[in-house]
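Shipment paperwork, digital attachment
Item: protein structure file
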Amino acid sequence: MSNSVKTIGDLKESGWESVSVKEEIRRNLIKKMQQSDDLFPGVLGYENSVIPQIQHALLGKHDLLLLGLRGQAKTRILRMLVNFLDEEMPIVAGSEIHDDPFNPISKFGRERVADEGDDTPIEWVGRDQRYGEKLATPDTTVADLIGDLDPIKAASKRLTLSDEDVINFGLIPRVNRGIFVINELPDLQPRIQVSLLNIMQERDIQIRGFNVRIPLDLFMAFSANPEDYTNRGNIITPLKDRIDAQIITHYPKTLDIARDIARQEAWVERQGDRKVIIPEIYREILAQVAFVARESEYIDQKSGVSARMTITALEQVVSAAERRMVINGEKETTVRIADLFHMVPALTGKLELVYEGEQEGAVNVAKHILGKAINKTFKMHFPDPQQKKKEGDDDFYKPMLDWFAKGNSLELPDSLSDSEYKNRLDAVNGLNDVVKKGVNFEEKNLYPVKDLVVEALHQNSMLGKDDLDDERSYSDMLGSMLGGMGDFDDSDFSKG
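Attachment content:
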C-alpha cells in the first residue's frame, strides 16, 4: 500500500481505517492466535503461565508490568510486543510524533492538514519505528520522557515561550501510536514516576506549565525486579494502580527447559574446523547448577540466579575444551569434568552471596554448588553409592574402589591430550563396567562419563581428590587422609 498511497486523499480512497494502537495490537494478536503462530519465539518455559497472562492483558487492551527476578526474559518479551503492530502505519509527513493523518494532534500536523487538505503528503513508518524503550536510571528526567520548552528554538524562530512550536518532545510522545517500555521501573525517582500518571490514565501529556494538553495514543509496558521495591526504590502507589496487569515471571521449572534455553542461547558452534562435543549428561549438570544455586543457603535468593549464568557457564566450558584442542593440535574433543570446573568465573560473577567475604569464598561456594550439581545428576543415572554402602551391597563400585585402595591414583591434567586422557581412564580397573551398567550412552561419550563417575565418587566421599590449578588427582579416601596428616611435623603433636 505504501508505494501507491502518498497523500491523505489516496489514503481515504484506499479504505484504510484509523484505530487505536491497543485495538491494532488486539486485532493482530487474534489473527496470530487463529493461525497458531508462535507468539514469543525463543521464549521457553512460559507456555502455560506467563504467555497466557500476557495474551489476556493484550486482549483486554491493558498496559502491563512484568515483575520478576533478573534473567527471566522480561526485556526480551517486551521487545517482542512490537510484532503485534501492523507492518506499516501512515503518518503526516514530517511529523515528530507520528500524527494520524485523519486525526493530527500536534500543531504542525493540524496546520499542515488544514492548509493542504487531501493533498497533504503522508509517510509510512515501520513497526520498529513505533517502539521506544528507556532504562529507568536515577538521572532520568521529565524532559527526557515527556519533553520541555526549547528556548534556543524559540530564539532562532523568534517565537515566544507560549508558542506550541517551541516544544521539544521527549521519548514518549515520539512513539505516539506505538509501544513505549520502561525497564527497571522502581529505579525511576518518585517525582519522575508522577509525570507518567496522566499518560497512564488520561492519555495526555502536559509540558511544563504549557496551556495545551496533547492526547497520545500509546501502549505502555514496564519491567521490574521485586527486590527493587526495597533495595533501590519502589513504584509509587498511584502509578501501580494505573498499570492494569501485573504479570509474575519465573525461572525454568524443569531441567529440560533450562537445558533447552542454554542449548538455544549459548554460543557453542565456534568458527573453524574444530569441534567440541557436549554429552547430554553434561548439559544436565550445567542446567542442574542453576537449580542447586537457587536452593543454596549460601546464595541470596532475593537477588535471584539468572538464566544467563547457565548460558555463560556453558560457553566457558566449551572455551576450556577449545583451548585444550588448540594446545594439543587436535580437531575434535569432548567436554570433560575439568572443563566444568572452568565455569567457576561464570558463577562467581552472577551469584550474590548471603555473606559477602573474600573473593576466595565466592570461588569455594561456586565449586561447592558445581559439586552438588554433579552429584545430583550422577544419581539420576547411577545407583547412590552411599545407599549401596548402607545396604551392604557395594559390589557395583567395589572393583573400582579396590583399585584405588591398592595405592593406585588417577592424575588428570586439564590440558591432557585426548589419547592420553583415554589411556589413563582405561587404566582404572572396574570403571568401564560401572559405566556400562549405569547409563545408556553413545560410544563417543564413554570417557566423559567415566570421568563423571570418578568425580561423583569423590563428591560422595568415597575417593580423595587433590585439586590443583591445572590438574586433578584422585586416590583412595583413607590414603588421602593419611597423606594429609603426613604434612604435619611431629612437633605439631607434642605442643601444648
